[in-house]
Amino acid sequence: MAETINMPKLGFAMAEGTLIRWLKKVGEMINKSDILAEIETDKATVEVESPASGVVRKLLVDEGAVVPVNTPIAIIGTADEKLEEPAEQKMETKQSDAGTHPDLIPTAATVPVPTKAASTPVTVPVTPILPGKVSPLAKRMAHEAQVDLANVKGTGPSGRIVRRDIEAALSGGSKPVTAGVGSNITSVSHADEAIGMSRLRQVIAHRMAESKASVPHFYVTHEYKMDALLYLRKQFNAIVPEEEKLSVNDFIVKAAALTLRQFPNLNASLSGSSVMRHGAINVGVAVSVEGGLMTVVCRDADQKPLRQVSAEVRKMATRAREGKVRPDEIEGSTFSISNLGMYEVENFLAIINPPEAAILAIGTAREVPVVEGGAVKPGWRMKVSLSVDHRVSDGVEGAKFMQALGVYLEEPLRLVL
Which of 100, 108, 325, 338 could form an S-S bond across to 350 if both were Cys, CB 3.0 to 4.6 Å? Predict the structure, then answer.
């Protein structure tokens, strides 16, 4: 029996998604869990798996279409199966916001509600982008590299110039715009430039503004001795392949997960007048991606060996940067970690990721003068700050959590036993 595949709802707040690319064509065989399409959401570009095996009979929307959740996008069945014709219903037109944000893709998506499981193709018209339109990232790259956009051919939807086009122009030797032959002075425009915010940037802006406005944050900062952890990491990494080496962040993820077992109030979220303490400890790790940040989720991090935590986070971070994360890799975190240590940041304060109750901000492990037994000697120290929702917890509990976290970070053998 034919099965209709709908636009999935990838997250509580998702209302629509953009179908970026079909990975299967009409007539191709597909197995359950094979990747059917790539869909862009507010958070990322995610790969959508097929929930059924069979033959791709129909693709109901075009690439580049913006489609509301739960709308049919494809039909999978047997090769000789007869598909029933649904009754078409009047469709509601969605207006584009291109006038406000000229760099955003203008669309006019119209979708009927089918009356049967199988349907004929639904036309979801996409208003074309005028030739010469440039994505915000491509525009910035062109500006920084002094690439003349007039000489760049766009390969995005409807001729839109995107990142790969600028990269191709640079590799192909596109010339920068200069002040004249023989001149060493480069002409640079200092005119104001309005850049449309990407979907990811918009959702970050909304969620962070909402968090700071509605969540009463308090902060606790602690400095940890890192000598033993860095020594253990060095010993381990000396005997494993490059792709299995541990990062400092891997130790922190595992240590935070084990500490949360003792402090369930911080592995929680506020639900009305109740605090929902989550049974699973799913640690979200902030990853820098094109245009913003994304949180990948290490599920049940307290129950997994350190090496497994490391492998999973590395794999998900790579997929996030490539724009190929899966829905379950970015949803469901119960506690988050943001690490800027690789950027030589001494310490910082992170904004809580709603609806979570807390987040850790990790600074750089630094070799500094320390006083021990009345003598000054070099030692490795790292500052970590905990941001907590004051509606859920208080300063004393936050301080005790940081003390308990130190037991694992300063005695790292506990993380591998």
Answer: 338
Per domain, the residue ranges of the chain are 1-127, 130-196, 199-415
CATH architecture of 1-127: Beta Barrel (2.40)
Query: With the C-alpha atoms ordered 147, 151, 154, 158, is the resulting torsion angle positive or negative?
Result: positive
Q: What is the pLDDT of residues 167-201, one digit of tens each?
A: 788 876 544 444 444 445 555 567 787 877 777 77
Is residue 260 over pLDDT 70? yes
Strand 217-225 relative to strand 274-277: parallel, antiparallel, unpaired?
Answer: unpaired
**Residue among 254, 236, 255 nearest 245 (CA):** 236
DSSP letters of 354-394? TTBSEEEEE---EEEEEEETTEEEEEEEEEEEEEEETTT--
Tell me which residue of 401, 403, 406 sits closest to 263, measured CA to CA.
401
* Catalytic, out of 101, 190, 217, 390: 390
Confidence band for 82, pLDDT divided at 50, 70 and 90: confident
Burial, 272: exposed, middle or buried (Cβ in 10 Å; 0-12, 13-18, 19+)?
A: exposed
CA torsion through residues 73, 77, 81, 84, sign: negative
- Please name the amino acid found at residue 282: N
User: Cα(251)–Cα(230) distance, rounded to whole angstroms?
Assistant: 10
> Taking the model in full, what pTM does it have?
0.64
Mean pLDDT, range 12-17, rounded to an integer: 69
Mean pLDDT for all residues in the chain: 81
The angle, 0 to 180 degrees and rounded to 10, between the axes of the packed helices 136-145 and 163-171 is 20
Q: What's the start-to-end Cα distance of the chain, in Å?
A: 51
Residue 348 to residues 145, 219, 290: CA-CA distances in angstroms? 32, 10, 22
Q: Which CATH code for domain 199-415?
A: 3.30.559.10
Q: Give the SS3 label for residue 7.
A: coil
CATH architecture of 130-196: Irregular (4.10)
Tell me if residue 390 is catalytic.
yes
Q: 120: closest CA among 79, 74, 80?
A: 74
With CA atoms as reference, report the closest residue to 43 among 309, 290, 314, 210.
Answer: 290
Mean pLDDT of 350-378: 95
